[in-house]
Amino acid sequence: MPALDKLKALIAPAKLLTDDSSLAAYGKDWSGQFTPAPLAVALPKTIEQVQAIVRWAIEQGVALVPSGGRTGLSGAAVAANGELVVAFDAMNQIIDFNPYERRVVCQPGVVTAQLQQFAQDNALYYPVDFASSGSSQIGGNISTNAGGIKVIRYGLTRQWVSGLKVVSGTGELLDLNQGLIKNATGYDLRQLFIGAEGTLGFIVEASMQLSRAPQNLTALVLAVTDLDCIMPLLHSFQSKLDLTAFEFFSEQALEKILARGDVPAPFETRCPFYALLEFEALNEDISNQALSLFEQALENGWVADGVISQSTQQLANLWKLREYISETLSHFSPYKNDLSVTVSRVPDFLRDIDQLVQQNYPDFAVIWYGHIGDGNLHLNILKPDNLSKEAFFSKCHEVNKQVFETVQRYQGSISAEHGVGLVKRSGLNYSRSPAEINAMKAIKAVFDPHGIMNPGKIF
Q: Which InterPro entries match (predicted)?
């Protein structure tokens, strides 16, 4: 194809892939609901090459889809309609580090775990963490405003981005905020690109802030007797300790984890729900305070059992109970919903949604887990063996309207941390007003006047 030959010449010596296996691999993400069909895959190495790709796309009228680690669950990185995939695997270097500012400048293809390890090697800490940290990339994390397991203490990716370089839909390079902590000169355009899922432009460089490394992290796993005990339990521990995590999973989730055979049970007691709390045991007083709070929870009937980590190995094993859930469930072709409400409304919301799903699908296995400390719940419905994937997803889509109506009634979000992409764009109106959606479309038109930047995603 002459147009591709021209692009190949423009970005040489960077790669342009057109073989079937590359198209299949780079044209999809973890959502698993769409058949990839990209035109080709470009792997630029420089900002100038990204700009050349965008200008070529404008000239040829070709849509572009950004690709990072492709660990997303919303279809935002899917290329199913002849788009050119722009993959950032080759832009994977840490460019600069300022220990005084605790700031790292990195390319978008830097893997999350790579940044975490770099921080650790310099006695610092990058706190945004989740199950896919070994393959997700910083550019993708920023584009979806990734959250994860430490949000209750450290916030979302947004809190750790002090500067961005982006190539907009016109091919222009924008240098946004330049690593400044304080900057009151009008609109903070950097924030618009965080969570925009590549619909405004492509992130080509990021200034990421690091933190003090936590010390003597300690975890408690508690067997929670009833859903209504979750909030008083959270309030009790949070009033006395600076929690770094407060995670939640159901008995059904624990059963799937223990069935793997490689993760030990935390205790013999079984309860409908479990909470995992983490904190820094900086001194003996804090450790004693945690044990005292656990004893109070037992006396109040909020928990029936519990265990506290006594070593780094036990800490890692307790975290496996929570972190292994997503990967374990992936073998059951789950239909996932990523929902959030204000923290205090979580128990009532979860109960309403669970009742709704059970009424509609009494024969489907329903698995709950999530970041309950920040109001984020993951609803997973597992595919029965006797149903095709197409029929299963179709049935789940039928009840989604009722699920989203419940989210709207609770003034929550249909996507807490996974983005909108293709999967949830039809439900955007349940979390955003018509005026907000119109404003978002107007913003996209400014940065992407030719409509080539990840079209069809979000809207």
A: FAD-bd_oxidored_4_C, FAD-bd_PCMH, FAD-bd_PCMH-like_sf, FAD-bd_PCMH_sub1, FAD-bd_PCMH_sub2, FAD-linked_Oxase-like_C, FAD-oxidored/transferase_4, Oxid_FAD_bind_N
Q: Measured between alpha carbons, how far is 323 from 345 in angstroms, rounded to an integer? A: 24
Give yes or no: residues 31 and 126 share one domain.
Answer: no
Q: What is the C-alpha separation between 49 and 101, in angstroms, rounded?
A: 30
Residues 29, 257: Cα–Cα separation, whole Å: 24
Residue 1's Cβ-count burial label (10 Å; 0-12, 13-18, 19+) is: exposed
- Considering the entire predicted model, what is its pTM? 0.93
CA separation for the pair 284, 453 (Å, rounded): 54
Q: Is 254 found in the same domain as 181?
A: no
For 235-251, write each residue's pLDDT tens digit.
Answer: 999 999 999 999 999 99
- 454 falls within a domain: no
Same domain, 110 and 162: yes
> Is the residue at 458 inside a domain?
no
Number of domains in the chain: 4
pLDDT in tens, 332-386: 888 889 999 999 999 999 899 989 988 988 888 999 999 989 999 999 999 988 8
